[in-house]
Amino acid sequence: MIKPVVGVLFGLFVCGAGVWALAERVRLQLRGARAPGVVVGRTDAVGTGPGIAGRSGVFRFRTPDGPRGAGSRRPSPGPRAAEICCARPAACSVRCAACARPAEPGKAVGSRGPGVRTAAPLGSGLHRDGRRGRGPSHHQREKRGQVNTSYTDEKNPRPHPEETAPADTAAARSAFARVRTALIWIVLGWTAGLEQLDDNSFLTHLRTGRWILEHHGVPHSDIYSYTVPGADWVAQSWLMEVLYAGLYESVGPNGIRVLGGILGAACAYLAYRLAVRASGGRVRTVVVLVPALFVSTLYWVERPLFAGILAFLALLWIVEIPDSAAGRRPLVALPPLMWLWANCHGSFALGFAYLALHLLGRWADGHRPWQGRERRLLQATVLAFAVCFLNPYGAGLVLFPVELLTHGEALKYVQEWKSPDFRTLTGAAFAVWIAVFAAVLALARKRPTRRDVLVSLPFLLLGLWALRNAAVAPLVGLPIAARLLPEAPPPVRRPRLDVAMIAAVVLLAVPPARSELSRPSFDLSRYPVAAMRTVEQQGLLGRRLFTTTGWAGYVIHRYWPRQRVFMDDRYDMYPTEFAVNFQKVRYGDARWQTTFDRYRVEVVVWETGTALTEILTQSPSWRVLYRDRLATVLVRR
User: Fold this and answer.
1) How far apart are CA 213 and CA 239, in angstroms?
2) Is 16 helix (H, G, I), strand (E, B) or coil?
């Protein structure tokens, strides 16, 4: 029953998102084309000049006698160039190539009379303050067809239909194109997040979430092992664990997969919008968006880190897009975001590190942290850090990332804490991103700011230090590289083609999603399912079991509390010496006998063909109970 329901929900989600985005885009674009007192043009500077609200690529300002408007996006003749709405040169009160009269004293620059206001573009014939600047003249741009001739006046406040039709058509075409591209990224993100559940850490998180719901509280000591029972434990992802368990209990495991698809769609769309807004709407953002997002998608699995990646993208949006709704209100947006992030995953520490590097970089560029927007951002950061202490563990959860790093001797045995291996898919993808980022910085016409270097370089080094940091390192460099991309000619807009592509994306995405959801929710092919079933059938369940940290997650999920484990992947909880000794035994160290005797190990479920399995097979103290191509079960004689 759940499968068709989820399929219908997916179809409604994709179609609803596409229709809503399309309607919103068309409404905004057409309203901007008809609004009185509107500057029609674009600029590559975000928030440049007085009276500009800063929406990338569009002048937005409020006139004394007219509402706020947004101009249609049109190609500029060169960097930092713009076009102005000037259909009647004779009525213009500013001296320019199209008008011989000087500006009247006391009248606003660009005023054509009552009810009409214009602004001189950056890089064109006149600046907003009336000074002569570089760039082609008004009539030169008009001959090239680059000047929009829609206008308003006092007698006829609505623009003439024959003059607004081109703007309406361009707005509609632009809206269709943006919806098409956004929908493609949403579908790709949805597909990447809609995978079977097979992560060993997720299995432990799911069991912990179910324990929290049953006991109406979070655990403060170890409940899963027989080696360090009662040890202090901070379940730092407790909020995501509760969400996992709630979905599992209410709608089944497919609900968790749908959550992954939604997180993937949100991450892909937010990364796309971040690149587009940072670049000013250039079409070449795909050059940096694809490699950056591909590295991150390799970590889009059913783990709390997935929510941490989305939170990091939201943080980048607040900081990198200051003219956005969240960027203008960091004191409102930042504290709840960081609180949710801190209670979902320990990667929130990287968010605070990014904020500190950003403020230091802006200070190096001449923007002091106690002035302007930097002051508000600093206040929001301090408030967010204080709010993070409001959690079930208090300071223990906030200090969790620091506590984890103190176990560095044990973490060096963990794959995701090792440096990238460029012969693997993840390492090669990260190397491609580094090459693309370096090429953009080297070939860009503009030099990166001190802030850009101070922010991007440490995160690249973090990605080279530990493989798990590669999930967010490319996202930090994404808006920086997008801003430095060279200009590209605007694409030819074909609304019919855009509509056809939107329909094709929706139709082609729904069947694979339903097919994916029809598969079993859990993929346990790499876990010792048959071996543990043999242990249960032989009445050995509950004995002192020794197994790998990855398989321990499956044992906890399937057999706890009847079966406890020797050690699992909670490296922050186990003593460092204990964890290091476990790793040495794992690779066949001669001290395995001492360790087994000390902790009275009775049953071993280990990987077939490994050194430890061969040693135990040849030992007279152990006998083989079960063996397959994946796992071997050995019992003490």
Assistant:
1) 11
2) helix
- Give the residue from 273, 57, 317, 294 showing the smallest Cα distance to 178: 273
Per the CB < 8 A criterion, the answer to whether 112 and 93 are in contact is yes
Helix (H) or strand (E) holding 252: none
Helix runs in 371-524, H state only: 372-387, 395-398, 400-405, 408-411, 425-443, 450-465, 473-484, 495-518
Q: Could you tell me which residues come within 8 angstroms of residue 381 by beta carbon, excluding any fewer than 6 positions away?
A: 334, 352, 355, 356, 359
Q: 21-25 contacts: CB < 8 A, separation 24 or more?
A: 21/178, 21/179, 21/182, 21/183, 22/175, 22/176, 22/179, 22/502, 25/174, 25/175, 25/178, 25/179
Instruction: Give me the percent of the chain exceeding a pLDDT of 70.
Output: 67
Contacts with 584 (C-beta within 8 Å, 6 or more apart), sequence order: 591
Nearest C-alpha neighbor of 570 from the set 140, 241, 88: 241
H or E element, residue 112: strand 111-113
Residue 193 C-beta-side C-alpha neighbours within 13 Å: 32
Q: What totals of helices (H) and strands (E) does the chain contain, helices first? A: 23, 6
Which sign, positive or negative, has the C-alpha torsion 505, 507, 511, 514? positive
The one-character DSSP state at 419 is P
User: Tokens standing for 556?
Assistant: 């906890």
Q: The pTM is what?
A: 0.73
Q: How far apart are CA 101 and CA 90, in angstroms?
A: 9
CA pair distance 586, 597, nearest whole angstrom? 15
How far is Cα 176 from Cα 184, in angstroms, rounded to an integer? 12
Q: Where do runs of H (alpha helix) occur along 123-160?
A: 138-143
Neighbours of 427 (CB within 10 A): 18
**For residue 28, what are its two tokens?**
């905004």
What CA–CA distance (Å, rounded) separates 93 from 107?
Answer: 9
H-helix or E-strand spanning residue 391: none
* Mean pLDDT in residue range 457-478: 93
Element (H, E) at 601: none
> Residue 235's closest CA among 268, 198, 210, 260?
210
DSSP state of 562: T
| Adjacent-strand bridge partners of 116 | 113
Q: Name residues whose C-beta falls within 8 Å of residue 146's C-beta, 6 or more positions apart in sequence.
A: 74, 75, 76, 77, 83
Which comes out higher in pLDDT, residue 113 or 573?
573
Asked, as a colleague might, if the bond just before 561 is cis with ω within 30 of 0, I would say yes
> What digits encode the pLDDT tens for the residues 87-112?
333 334 333 433 444 444 444 444 34
Q: What is the pLDDT of residues 478-527, one digit of tens each?
A: 999 999 887 655 555 555 555 565 666 666 566 666 666 667 888 899 99
Contact 364, 454 (CB under 8 A): yes
Q: Which helix (H) or strand (E) holds 175?
A: helix 161-193
In DSSP terms, 634 is beta-bridged to 604, 624
* 473 touches 463 (CB < 8 A): yes
Structure tokens at 128: 């907003």
CA–CA gap between residue 322 and residue 329 (Å, rounded): 9
For residues 583 and 611, give the distance between their C-alpha atoms in angstroms, rounded to a whole number. Answer: 13
C-alpha span between 406 and 43 (Å, rounded):
49
Query: What is the Cα–Cα distance from 328 to 88, expressed in whole angstroms?
Result: 37
- Confidence category of residue 189, pLDDT binned at 50, 70, 90: confident
What is the structure's pLDDT at 271? Answer: 94
At 209 the pLDDT is: 96
Tokens of 24: 């919103």
